[in-house]
Design brief:
The protein has 128 residues and is an alpha/beta fold. It is built from two helices and eight strands.
């Protein structure tokens, strides 16, 4: 019989407290601090769950990668009609636009770097 498991995406960074606060505000989630100051979780009521971990030698990733290789990034699903507001929230919290375009519809995709340099994408979804 398989044991019960769950998973969490962990982002490395230099300042986990600040990055956790950024994602908690962006996702409407809460920050869960444990005994380890180098590991902080971000947990939302609707199933969002990620964590940030201090890496003392952290160097931000680049987007896009020069060699065109794949790298992980977050897709944050947003109702089509809320995309502009979600973009204002992200930038107001410290996100840096990398690739934004207003496609006005279900193919509206906008990519940003969080304050530590990780890429994430706001993706329009119908009926969200």
């Amino acid at each position: 019989m398989a044991t019960s498991k769950t998973s969490v995406l962990v982002l490395d960074c230099a300042a986990p407290e600040e990055l956790a606060d950024f994602y908690a505000a962006l996702l409407g989630a809460t920050v869960r601090r444990g005994n380890d100051p180098d590991f902080v979780e971000v947990v939302g009521n609707d199933g969002n769950h990620l964590a940030v971990r201090r890496d003392h030698g952290y160097a931000p990733p680049s987007w896009p990668r020069p060699d065109d290789s794949q790298q992980a990034h977050l897709h944050i699903l947003v109702a089509e009609e809320d995309m502009d507001e979600a973009e204002r929230e992200a930038v107001g919290l410290g996100a840096r636009p990398i690739e934004t375009r207003d496609n006005s519809g279900p193919r509206d995709v906008r990519t940003y770097a969080d304050p530590a340099g990780h890429s994430f994408t706001l993706v329009a979804r119908q009926g969200r």
